[in-house]
Amino acid sequence: MTATPPPPSERPTKKSDWTHPSIVEVVSILHPFYTKRHITVFPVIAITWDISGFSPVLNASEVESVFDVPLEMFLKNENRREEKVELMGDRFLVHYFDYVTENICYTIWALTASILIEAASIIYERLPPIEEQKPKFWSRSRHLNME
């Protein structure tokens, strides 16, 4: 399912936005990740107290669909595979997690998978039985020369 964001005039304001503190409580902000395209990602761990108020507006160029996944899945080897990659002179592992819901198979991989592995490790207070080899550029500042 691909959604198109509504025009700015129809977008929710901060007071009714699903990120409003009455609907979502921020628990933690993880360290930033930096992508090969010089984008900084600040993962936020939050609790949604009223799921009926959760109505995300998707950016179709970045998000194809929204679905629920058990976080503990990212601490297990089930439905997981990995690929050894070399990019920008750096060798690392890319993790892929397959999840089926409503007869649709989703693959959660790369940066998103690593962020969810880290979040699950923090929340469940245990490390996964998998090897993590992250690319160096994920932890570099976007202000550094990344070539």
UniProtKB/TrEMBL annotation:
Highest taxon of source: Eukaryota
PANTHER family in the record: NUDIX HYDROLASE, NUDIX HYDROLASE 11
Protein's name according to its UniProt entry: Nudix hydrolase 15, mitochondrial-like
Species assigned in the record: Salvia divinorum
Organism ancestry: Eukaryota, Viridiplantae, Streptophyta, Embryophyta, Tracheophyta
